[in-house]
Design a protein that fits this description.
299 residues, Methylamine Dehydrogenase, Chain H, 2 domains, five-stranded antiparallel beta sheet, four-stranded antiparallel beta sheet, 23 strands
Length: 299
Amino acid sequence: MFSINKNDPAKLKMVGQPVSTGGEFPMSLTISHRSGQVCILNGGRVNGVNCFKQDPLLGLIQMDNTQRSLNLNLTSPPAGPAGSLSHIIFNEDGSQLLASVKGIPPVPGFVASWNVDPKTGALSEEFSRFTPGQGGGLPFGMAVIPGKNAILVTDPASGFDIFNINNGTSASSTIVPIKGQSDTCWAAFSNKTGNFYLTDIGTSMVTEVHVDDNLHGTIVNQYPQGNGTATIDDEVATINGQDFLYVMGAGATSIMVLSLEGPGQAKSVQRFNFKQVATKHGMTIDSNNVQGMAVFVPQ
């Protein structure tokens, strides 16, 4: 856990000491907007989730009754991408913790869901299993659909899935194909445009998607980022009332910045090559070093 200097965000200070995730291959984390609870997704042989509370002096502290297994037969490091874990998020009100598990075709993957105790943060002993509809099978990156107990899940088997979570134990799924997609993996949401932005590492394409009040998904526009840029993680940040999309181009060791002028109107404004900066400071970075990113905007 690190604190960030709001006046100089490049200055990070470790809070407390590093803690074990309780597994062998940690791969994703999420923070509850309701409670501040931090939960980790572990892949590999010891797979499942584990949660911590934040202490301003001691850092991360293990929470009781939050380490839960997915009971998957995986190795450390895990093989993949098929058959491996992907992403962890809370639903909109923080009452459920969700983890995505890719299948091994023809066996589909699933989204695991644990109920979260509103007082203690403890997780239900068992998880519920939400399976994608016909055509889906590799649930990957997840994003909350605002105002609905529903999530958009990227799916390299088709395009993306929309899960309507009926209650804590069941969900229905709608598959929306993306024509010509290769590996649609991550998604981010813009409050300004009301749309989602999905990245495809294989085609280096950003696809803008709208989900209506009836949870019907449609493709609004697509934005090529250049052959071989290998677009992976993406994040939306609001700066001075304007939304910007930041896209990690692993193949180009760059971050592409798009200004979200309105629905269907994303405009490329910058490409920042962080490898060049790292080289000046004696660091060696290539496309295999690049994994994910997060955006920090001082309030």
